């Protein structure tokens, strides 16, 4: 990995990690309806990328399923969860995306994962259970466990999206993103209209500037810059080199929650975070070893 590639990777981790802080501040401090925030985000992204929209004959089922996981259900679970849980706990819990992907690869694709990755997945789940039990005092009465459960559901939705996209061939990331935005808009707008009220608060004089900045961060930095840069790295580097960036994203999310939002980390949450990250490290290590073995066998 060159210095340039490393700098890009760190930029991605910083953008994604701080997004938990941005979401928490926007939804809680500004009191913006979370589904409305998510719907507006994906719709703006879809409009920006609309010139890249293409119909992919024979692959649209996988594309639309990917959109349901990556552009709709993950946000439908994750954004409302930010009202209930802390940014730091959410940053750790979303890492369940990886063990969920492993489980689905076994159930759907028939892959074999072995004892190491099974153990890593079990550790990750155990760590999230500990996080759910370690609610800080300011969040204990606000459905903290429910928030953790919703984040886990969001991670599961992303895993479903990943498994769907895995079967897609010769479709650029930008074309996938525009479809994700369209599917997300179709799902999230009705949910916001039927389940929420007060959407106009986002445009009040005291909130509209900060809400606009949050949207710019979510759409331009997170969806376009960070995701686009991540796909650029995947084209240049082995996936086992890029994949551990999720751990740095988690660390930045936790630090951001504590330093910027003043969140408290209870001993149980810290233990749960360490257990979860340890499980993810086991999975990443095993994936790396498997990739090396395949390269050796093919050479």
UniProtKB/TrEMBL annotation:
Keyword terms: Membrane, Transmembrane, Transmembrane helix
Main location: membrane
Record-stated family: Belongs to the EamA transporter family.
InterPro entries: AA-Vitamin_Transporters, EamA_dom, EmrE-like
Lineage, top ranks: Bacteria, Pseudomonadati, Pseudomonadota, Alphaproteobacteria, Maricaulales
Record's protein name: Membrane protein
Record localization: Membrane
GO CC, one annotated term: membrane
